[in-house]
Amino acid sequence: MQQLSNKVSLITGAAQGIGQATALKFAREGAIVIVCDIHQDAIDDTVKQCQALGAQAVGHVVDVTQREQVDAVVASVKAQFGRIDVLVNNAGITQDARLVKMTIEQFDRVIDVNLRGVFHCAQAVADTMIEQGQGVILNASSVVGIYGNFGQTNYAASKFGVIGFTKTWSRELGPKGIRVNAVAPGFVHTPILASVPDNVLKDMETRVPLKRLGQPGEIANVYAFLASDEASYVNGAVIEVSGGMTV
Fold first, then answer.
1. The one catalytic residue among 147, 155, 223, 233
2. CB 178 within 8 A of CB 136
């Protein structure tokens, strides 16, 4: 049985990495997948892959830092499908530098995408979910958002902030029938790691008890569970998916 049958699911950053894996997992589980990203070609490719799995899928170009674009997508999805059941706030970026070297532009850009973008999307769907009396909001945090990381002042702050959003919204929206949870991945093999030297990747693997990096699909599986009715009593949680790296 498909655990997300006909759930209208809007996924940001859905054209690559964890976001794409999540879109494909949701497609396999019967969801109606709304693929949101900033690159049309990549969006089109992901939509086709979802459709090949038998799912109904549509794509939208959206920059989550631009509220008018987010509102337009939400309005379009609601007009087409009549509801929004799941929001996966996956879009995110890194621009790493040590505190003494980080530029204001690097700091602002990461906060704008990773924190403000999550706020925009959640606020944009909240009224619809409240009207429905149900919904699920899932936020992408990180183990860096729990423990910090060298050279990631901006990223750590944004992912700490996402946890704050999650805890707060779960209190505010829980009484309305809306569950809000976060996933905190560890080291995952995504395009973000493409520029990382092999010796650094090996060092990352040695820090994980499972002695390997995670795969995007392993994060997507957790999102799918949290979005499903099987997680009906999970609210305000931050689930670490890291192979035990922080044990």
1. 155
2. yes
CB 57 within 8 A of CB 27: yes
8-state DSSP, 193:
G
Q: Which residue has the tokens 């990382």?
A: 196
DSSP 8-class letter at 243? T
Q: What pLDDT digit, counting tens, does each position of 64-88 carry?
A: 999 999 999 999 999 999 999 999 9
- Mean pLDDT for 141-155 is 96
223 is catalytic: no
What integer pLDDT is reported at residue 151 of this predicted model? 95
Distance CA 146, CA 134 (A): 28
Which pLDDT belongs to residue 180? Answer: 99
The reported pTM is: 0.97
What is the pLDDT at residue 197?
A: 83
246 pLDDT higher than 80 = yes
Please answer whether residues 56 and 44 qualify as being in contact, where contact means their C-beta atoms are separated by less than 8 angstroms.
no
Q: Which residues contact 162 (CB under 8 A, 6 or more apart)?
A: 89, 114, 115, 118, 139, 140, 141, 145, 182
Contact present, 57 and 106 (Cβ < 8 Å): no
Give residue 198's pLDDT.
87
In terms of DSSP H, where are the helices of the chain?
A: 17-28, 40-52, 67-81, 104-111, 117-132, 144-147, 153-173, 198-206, 216-227
Domains of the chain (ranges plus CATH)? 8-186+216-236 (3.40.50.720)
